[in-house]
């Protein structure tokens, strides 16, 4: 707690504009701090990164997404299984959710070989962090290891359909509660 407090205070009290090269790690740290200590007021921290946020664009990271495995997955999810996934959704100008269904906040992340540690099938810490931060912010995430998924052969469509439907079912009640709350607020405003 004290280490993170000192870190946040150090970032918040910088007199210089945050260099764009440091923006993404600082923003990731901010979301991590939020998940640990949601009661902390992080406005000063965010203000320190304001200028960098204006110029940073996650779209330049999308170049990595123009690969065959993404086209195959898009075909399977949206054409063959008839889900309505948004492709390459930018979240908070920080991460790209490979495939997302909104407002359910259901996401599919495709773990490729380059997302793994060298000579391992285990994901790199940065890849795991993306999933953890999204889940801490209310997302239901299905992580698909591309190699394992490809090896499922003809069973892969049935497997991913079942997994996505589980996530959609898990979010159904949450969506219903949010909609009921939104309606209650609107009716209260009309009175």
Estimate the mean pLDDT confidence: 86
The main pleated sheet reads as: 4 strands, mixed
Task: Provide a count of the helices.
Answer: 8
What oligomeric assembly is this protein in? single chain
Distance between the termini: 45 Å
Q: Indicate the radius of gyration in whole angstroms.
A: 19 Å
Secondary-structure element order, as H and E? HHHHHEEEHEHH
- What are the segments in which pLDDT stays under 50 over at least 5 consecutive residues? none
Largest sheet, spatial ordering of strands? 1-2-3-4
Secondary-structure map:
Layout lengths: L1 H11 L7 H17 L6 H6 L1 H6 L12 H13 L5 E6 L3 E7 L4 E6 L13 H12 L3 E6 H6 L4 H35 L1
Helix pairs in contact: 2-6
Could you please describe the fold and organization of this structure?
- The chain has 191 residues and is of the alpha+beta class.
- The protein contains eight helices and four strands; from the N terminus they run αααααβββαβαα.
- It has a four-stranded mixed beta sheet with strand order 1-2-3-4, sandwiched between helices.
- A hairpin with a 4-residue loop joins strand 2 and strand 3 (106-111).
- Helix 2 crosses helix 6.
- The chain is globular.
Question: Which features characterize this protein?
Answer:
191 residues; alpha+beta; 4-stranded mixed β-sheet; globular
Provide a compact summary of the structure.
The chain has 191 residues and is an alpha+beta fold. It is 55% helix and 13% strand.
